[in-house]
Specification:
With about 550 residues, the chain is of the alpha+beta class. It folds into three domains: about 110 residues, Creatine Amidinohydrolase, Chain A, domain 1; about 140 residues, 3-Layer(aba) Sandwich (Creatine Amidinohydrolase, Chain A, domain 1); about 280 residues, Creatine Amidinohydrolase. It has a six-stranded mixed sheet with strand order 11-10-9-7-12-13. Strands 20-27-26-23 form a four-stranded antiparallel sheet. The longest helix has 28 residues. The radius of gyration is 24 Å and the shape is globular. The model has no long low-confidence stretch (mean pLDDT about 95).
């Protein structure tokens, strides 16, 4: 939400991940490799330096502090937006410097004179025909898990976990249907800290019957500070702010573990899986119409990255139940596609030509699920190097999509499947291969992931995750192919239960960019099978002209 967009206001950098350090003689910004090119451009002339890795081991902001801050210095930060995990890491690395940490430091509020206010949109019901379970059943399940862990209370600080638990959604954040809130689950009550005006009367009545007590949002810390002696509370340090944590009295036993709703909601139930399959058809129809529109109008009508994004939104909006985009649509032409998270502006908005590479990364929210899909297409005359790069990315995508692995496997153990074809040619990409996807919640939502990072979460049946290898050539083009895959149980052998992925996204893959000579027979069979499924599932929803167009795009190679 705009109220907390401090870094864009302060620095001009608009990426989704960054940390800023300011001293009396230095101002620096740290972000990850997805945003290096973007950050260099946006920080130019701002007074802030982009700190990029100078070696294999990157210099994190904590490393920088360790090297540059004098002993017994004071470091101030806003404890409302700094996690317990982040603070502890900083404290541990700087312990020999005897640093004084000022954790309620807020210089921004006085400086940001026109700061947007906190959002106040209404929440809305998310019934069981979409969620698959009543809110009463979810609360009971969380309480059962709490008993197993021996805790009286469970603090929830991530709005998506609260939305899942209470079967509600909101409109407080762009691109995520969330209502800003905190909650504490107890043995007989759920305390929901939210502005009362956000909860419609019919929901408030239902909440009252279920023992869900609404309290003002800003009273969460005060309520925690008054918890009775002898209580125990479960928290998740990575998503609990320092300010909230510091409000827990010393006489309360703190148990630190993964958030129970976060773990439960990551596994789709049968109703959610059925709804997701319907949503993928709707989204696939919109994408088919979009790419056909580009192909038939390119060079005939003015078309830019921005106008194409508007057209894609219009086509999704024609689908029943469409709620809005799940993130800011990325439509990146040629060198802009080399920026994994490119954001179009009035200055950068490129006119689409009749040749070159176009990358389209987009998604939508529907009551039946959330989509996220990337396609890279040729607008004409693809070069041999572009076809080679595309095909190597496609080989990695197929290898991961076809993966079979034992129960207990973690995402980092299969990440290299998507990279091997690229590695064999000396190529790589700097982002993770897959992220968890929420269910009409956050498009990026864990705890599961497929990435070189050592995420300890095991992959289990029912998890929805992205499969998105890529390659980026700065100043030239970028290529990424992304589908969502659903994990399911395959065979059980004497060596245990095995899992596989079902690709659920539905959109053709541009055959004009494929170098068939680089593919194995198994990879060709996968492409043909996938294209057959795309046509079979989407064609009933298309008119004659659209079906004819899609038939050509999905013919066997």
């Amino acid at each position: 939400m705009d109220h907390w967009k401090i870094i864009p206001w302060l620095t001009g950098f608009t990426g989704s991940a960054a940390t800023v350090v300011i001293t009396d003689s230095f101002a620096g910004l740290w972000t990850d490799s997805r945003y290096f090119i973007q950050a260099e451009k946006q920080l130019a002339g701002s007074g802030f330096d982009l700190v990029r890795p100078a070696s294999i081991k990157p210099l994190t902001y904590i490393d920088w502090l360790e090297k540059n801050v004098r002993d017994e210095s004071t470091i101030g930060f806003d404890g409302r937006i700094f996690s317990v995990t982040g603070y502890r890491k900083m404290e541990q690395h700087l312990k020999d410097k005897r640093i004084n940490f000022w954790n309620d430091f807020d210089p921004i509020s006085d400086l940001w004179k026109e700061r947007p206010s906190m959002p106040g949109s209404k929440a809305w019901d998310f019934p069981a025909r979409f969620s698959g379970r009543e809110r009463s059943a979810k609360i009971a399940q969380v309480r059962e898990e709490m008993k197993k862990k021996g805790v009286d209370l469970h603090l929830l600080t991530s709005p998506d976990d609260i939305m899942w638990l209470l079967n509600i959604r909101g409109n407080d954040l762009a691109y995520s249907p969330l209502c800003i809130s905190y909650a504490i689950v107890g043995e007989t009550q759920v305390l929901l800290f939210v502005e009362e005006k956000k909860i419609p009367d019919h929901l408030a009545g239902e909440f009252d019957r279920l023992g869900i007590l609404m309290l003002p949002y800003e009273e969460c810390a005060g309520m925690i500070s008054s918890l009775p002696e002898g209580s125990s509370i479960l928290i998740t340090p990575s998503v609990t702010s320092v300010s909230i944590y510091n409000s827990i009295p010393s006489h309360i036993r703190i148990v630190e573990d993964a958030c129970i709703p976060a773990r439960l909601k990551a596994v789709r139930n049968s109703t959610e899986i059925e709804n997701i399959s319907r949503v993928m058809i709707k989204d696939g129809v919109a994408l088919t119409r979009f790419f056909r529109w580009i192909g038939e109008n390119l060079g005939l009508v003015p078309m830019t990255e921005h106008s194409a994004a508007i057209r894609l939104h219009e086509l999704r909006a024609q689908q029943e139940g469409y709620l809005g985009p799940s993130f800011s649509t990325i439509i990146a032409y040629n060198e802009h596609a080399a920026l994994p998270h490119y954001t179009v502006s009035s200055e950068s908005d490129a006119i689409l030509g009749e040749s070159g590479i176009l990358l389209v990364d987009s998604g939508g929210h529907y009551p039946g699920g959330t989509t996220d899909i990337t396609r890279t297409v040729s607008l004409g005359n693809p070069a041999l190097q572009q076809k080679k790069d595309f095909t190597l990315v496609l080989k990695g995508h197929i290898e991961l999509a076809r993966a079979k692995f034992p129960l207990g496997t973690r995402g980092y153990q299969i990440d290299m499947l998507a990279r091997k074809a690229l590695w064999d040619h000396g190529y790589n990409y700097g982002h993770g291969t897959g992220h968890g996807v929420g269910y009409c919640l956050n498009v990026h939502e864990g705890p599961q992931s497929i990435s070189p990072a050592g995420n300890k979460t095991t992959l289990v049946a029912g998890m929805l995750i992205s499969n998105e290898p890529g390659i980026y050539r700065e100043g030239e083009y970028g290529i990424r192919i992304e589908n969502l895959v659903l994990c399911y149980e395959d065979e059980e052998t004497e060596f245990g239960q095995f899992l596989k992925f079902d690709t659920v996204s539905l959109c053709y893959i541009d055959k004009s960019l494929i170098d068939k000579s680089l593919l194995t027979r198994e990879e060709i069979a996968w492409i043909n099978s996938y294209h057959s499924e795309v046509f079979e599932k989407l064609s009933p929803w298309l008119n004659v002209e659209e079906r004819t167009w899609l038939k050509e795009k999905t013919e066997t190679i």
